[in-house]
Design goal:
- The chain is an alpha/beta fold.
- It has one domain: NAD(P)-binding Rossmann-like Domain (Rossmann fold, 3-Layer(aba) Sandwich), CATH 3.40.50.
- It is built from 9 helices and 8 strands.
- It is globular, with a radius of gyration of 18 Å.
- The termini are far apart.
- Bound molecules: NADP nicotinamide-adenine-dinucleotide phosphate.
- The site of NADP nicotinamide-adenine-dinucleotide phosphate has 29 residues, from α1.
Length: 293
């Protein structure tokens, strides 16, 4: 008999996160639990109840929990309360608008995607059970080639440092540059999603440097995930053509399989992965979007 397993998804009341939570619950067993987390009690409660109503018998319990990932103390407290974790998808994201001034959005983006990523990695990586999976939802934008050559070496150096504090310091520099109106001049660019996603992957790479041998010996996987284009309220404003976009359920299928399979390909460890492929850190894959600047 296997011990009951605990899975956790951040930003899980809608979009990809919700589909990840539903997929995990269907793939796990009665006795296991999926913590469907988000920042609003009503929204997580509704989502958990709706998923539970549609699950086949024998699925895991879906438990709604409030977790605002912009609150580092809340992340640390939940980790301490749980003690250990088997599967965690760090998925939450702040909405961005092509028409907004990046200075108005950068704090939410940096705190929801970047500082939350490093806080989750610090709090939960030491609590990952043998065979566990800690997956940071990033994007195909998360590779060095998407950055201006003026700043790409700084992200590469942060990843190579093996130090999550170095990644946070670079994110602080980017955030300050956006507030000062110098982001484009310094090479960070205008579209917040690019430095944000590259910094998420840099954080995974930094932590993976230190943990790789020990984690692989015990079947633990820490990786960044590229889910591909998904039709959600977050992506629609950015892409002129959504005809190729996946549903959240389609996008969640492979990540859930990766999270629950007893084995994984060790080439995924510490990398940005999509549907069985590693996206190369330096060269990535082409991404088209409708943002004009
Ligand atoms: N959609 C795509 O095409 C695409 C492509 C590549 C990568 N991704 C990545 O996939 C992930 C999910 O994207 P999505 O399109 O599903 O986004 P989404 O529909 O906007 O969902 C984002 C989720 O994050 C939650 N959230 C926001 N701020 C939070 C906070 N402070 N604490 C906790 N939860 C918070 C939201 O909750 P509320 O309902 O309370 O706002 C929502 O549940 C993101 O990491 C995104 O970058 C998406």
């Amino acid at each position: 008999m296997t011990a009951p397993r605990t899975a956790l998804v951040t930003g899980a009341n809608q979009g990809l996160g919700r589909a990840l939570a539903a997929g995990l619950a269907a793939g796990l067993s009665a006795g296991d639990r999926v913590l469907l987390t988000g920042r609003d009690a009503g929204r997580v409660g509704d989502a958990a109840a709706q998923i539970a109503a549609q699950l086949p018998a024998g699925s895991a319990q879906v438990q709604p929990r409030v977790l605002d990932v912009r609150d580092p103390a809340a992340i640390a407290a939940l980790a301490a309360e749980l003690g250990t974790i088997d599967v965690l998808f760090s998925n939450a994201t702040a909405r961005m608008s092509p028409d907004a001034d990046p200075a108005d959005e950068v704090d939410a983006v940096a705190e929801t995607s970047n500082l939350a990523t490093t806080h989750v990695l610090r709090a939960f990586a030491p609590r990952l059970n043998p065979g566990g999976r800690l997956l940071i939802v990033a994007s195909a934008l998360g590779t060095l080639d998407k950055l201006d050559p003026a700043v790409a070496p700084r992200f590469a150096a942060a990843a190579d440092s093996g130090d999550l504090d170095a990644v946070d310091a670079l994110v602080a520099d980017w955030r300050a540059a956006v507030h000062a109106g110098r982001a484009e001049q310094e090479g960070f660019g205008r579209w917040l999603n690019i430095p944000s996603k590259v910094a998420q992957v840099a954080a995974v790479r930094a932590l993976a440097r230190a943990r790789r041998d020990e984690d692989l010996a015990s079947g633990r996987l820490i990786a960044a995930l590229c889910p591909g284009l998904i039709d959600t309220d977050a992506s629609r404003p950015w892409f002129a053509d959504m005809s190729e976009a996946q549903t959240p359920e389609q996008a969640a299928a492979w990540p859930v399989q990766l999270a629950l399979a007893p084995e994984f390909d060790t080439k995924y460890y510490g990398e940005l992965v999509q549907h069985g492929h590693v996206l190369p850190w330096e060269t990535g894959v082409p991404v088209a979007h409708s943002a004009t600047t």
